[in-house]
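mind reviewing this stuff:

——
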Amino acid sequence: MNSTRLANPKLQEAIAEVQTISPQPADRWEIAAILESLGYTDRQIASEFGYSDSLALGSEIYNYLRENGYLATREPTPAIITRRSYLEELAFFCGEFSRSFLYAIPFVVSMIVDNFFSWADPEVVPVQFSALLSPALMGSLIASGGFVQMIQRSIKI
């Protein structure tokens, strides 16, 4: 880190804010995210600190913290790959399937009611109600299915 830039009290304040939020940041990306969450914009970073963007400033702060002993040296931990048994795989599949299938239950119930009970008494589910219910349920399934996929992708297995 440049000593003239280091003398900037606002930069020292930014470094202190970063250390308050994360005493041991993992990398420059984490510091850049912290700076952005603190409200620093790229324009503000360029005018106040002389760096092009939050990642450039994050890199400098990370190098400063590492060089001055603020960061503990971490040994990289190898990824442990475990194999699951067939029963564990089946249980995992059933759990994931049930989470997604839960959203389809109203549609399945309406189809069962419509197909199995309407032959005996055609007034069980009126046609007008079925016509409105089916598109509403399909729209709900499409929207909720998207949310389920989004949530599922964010879960690290």
Q: What stands out?
A: The mean pLDDT is 77. The CA atoms of residues 114 and 127 lie 9 Å apart. The chain has two domains: 3-67, 86-154. The chain has eight helices and no strands.
